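re: the backbone from monday

yeah here it is again, tokenized this time
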């Protein structure tokens, strides 16, 4: 009898402490980037996704949604994709890849209010929508909202101003969902295009303020980088940037946890690097790197 009670207590403890891994990945214009005439290397992408071992992964820039669904079905057994119907002016859809063995997808929708702040959002105009999913962790029955965002790109003042408005819309949506549903656990992840983050410019100040007002934690604030770009000079070196974030409520944070960057960001430790050193993940999959964090 005592042994049975001990076993039950142990199983209960393991269940309560169950954790999952979430993340974000901008998969550059999957599955063909018309700008550079580069087709996505699906062998490399498949290998990376499997090695990430994420339970919920926010994904952006899914242009060929039909091919992406086929790719996930054939290359990621046990996983499903939930992708937005709308993709903004450039047809860059976004959403989630999730592990059906560890989480349940309870609902999925997209919010167009973020695409053109203050205006009626269009499915095929402006920036991308906000993808919103309600998940349940199977082991604990804990429910949480995941939000995938791909905000306005660029470092021009008007681009930064639009992102600031988009931060506030995300804040409003989270507060409304908390009030309406009673669910208190949220994560926001994706390409927030924070071009001025590493140098502590306007993006850093504005995003940090909103995150603090929401009582959330940016697990990627010290990740080092999440993307590379040519740097605006012809010196042969690609420059690191921190554009992607994983932001969580305290109820989804493991003690002292922070996000990690993978692929070419990890390979060169977020240093300036030559194109050849960044390798195939940079050349043939995405300029961004997947970032992940373990939550509970």
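seq for it, each position gets an aa:
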């Amino acid at each position: 009898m005592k042994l049975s009670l001990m076993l039950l207590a142990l199983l209960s403890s393991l269940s309560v402490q169950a954790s999952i891994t979430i993340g974000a990945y901008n998969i550059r214009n999957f599955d063909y980037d018309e700008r550079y005439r580069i087709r996505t290397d699906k062998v490399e992408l498949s290998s990376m996704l499997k090695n990430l071992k994420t339970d919920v992964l926010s994904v952006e820039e899914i242009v060929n949604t039909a091919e992406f669904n086929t790719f996930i079905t054939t290359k990621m057994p046990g996983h499903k994709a939930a992708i937005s119907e709308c993709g903004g002016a450039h047809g860059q859809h976004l959403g989630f890849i999730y592990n059906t063995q560890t989480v349940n997808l309870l609902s999925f929708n997209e919010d167009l209010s973020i695409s053109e702040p203050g205006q009626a959002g269009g499915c095929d105009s402006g920036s991308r929508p906000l993808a919103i999913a309600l998940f349940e962790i199977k082991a604990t029955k804990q429910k949480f909202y995941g939000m995938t965002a791909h905000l306005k790109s660029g470092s021009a003042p008007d681009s930064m101003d639009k992102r600031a408005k988009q931060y506030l819309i995300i804040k409003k949506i989270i507060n409304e969902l908390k009030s309406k549903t009673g669910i208190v656990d949220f994560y926001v992840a994706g390409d927030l295009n924070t071009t001025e983050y590493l140098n502590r410019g306007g993006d850093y100040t504005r995003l940090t303020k909103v995150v603090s007002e929401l009582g959330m934690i940016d697990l990627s604030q010290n990740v080092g980088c999440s993307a590379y770009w040519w740097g605006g000079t012809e010196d042969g070196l690609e420059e690191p940037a921190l554009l992607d974030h994983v932001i969580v409520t305290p109820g989804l944070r493991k003690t002292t946890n922070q996000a990690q960057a993978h692929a070419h960001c990890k390979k060169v430790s977020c240093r300036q690097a030559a194109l050849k050193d960044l390798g195939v993940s940079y050349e043939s999959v995405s300029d961004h790197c997947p970032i992940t964090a373990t939550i509970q």
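Residues 157-181 form the longest helix (25 residues). The helical segments are 2-16, 42-52, 65-75, 157-181, 202-213, 263-267, 275-278, 280-284.
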